[in-house]
Specification:
The chain is mostly helical. The protein has one domain. The chain is built from 4 helices and no strands.
Length: 131
């Protein structure tokens, strides 16, 4: 396989869009946490505590998603730097590492979505239990 300097550059738009999506998810969760905190201070509700535990886990997942996404971009930039100096074999390993980090970031994203669905299930279950 031929690896040119422009091949790793193909990841830049994808990583940038993913990081933007991750940041938007984080900001939405931060707003929700603040809202739930205020709600819980007014009226202690066990459902809110379950939601807060769920949100705490999701925030840590998003942090890991962002870290692996940024690491993927960093390794990709190093790969381009190495390719610029003609070290193709090392560049291939770095590019493979960058792709592996991107896969890990996407896997964490899938897990965060699954946890998000659990949070919605808590609300639906609460509605079903009420008369």
């Amino acid at each position: 396989m031929e690896l040119s300097l422009t091949t790793p550059a193909l990841l830049f738009p994808a990583v940038s869009l993913l990081l933007l999506a991750y940041t938007n998810r984080f900001l939405a969760l931060a707003t929700l946490v603040r809202s739930l905190h205020a709600h819980y201070r007014e009226r202690a509700d066990p459902l809110v505590l379950k939601q807060i535990d769920n949100l705490r886990y999701r925030i840590h997942l998003i942090q890991a998603m962002q870290a692996t996404g940024v690491s993927s971009l960093l390794v990709c930039v190093v790969c381009m730097f190495v390719l610029f100096f003609g070290k193709v074999v090392l560049g291939k390993f770095l590019f493979a590492g960058s792709l592996a980090l991107m896969i890990a970031s996407l896997g964490l994203s899938v897990r965060e979505i699954q946890v998000s669905v659990k949070a919605l299930d808590l609300h639906l279950h609460d509605l079903e239990e009420r008369p």
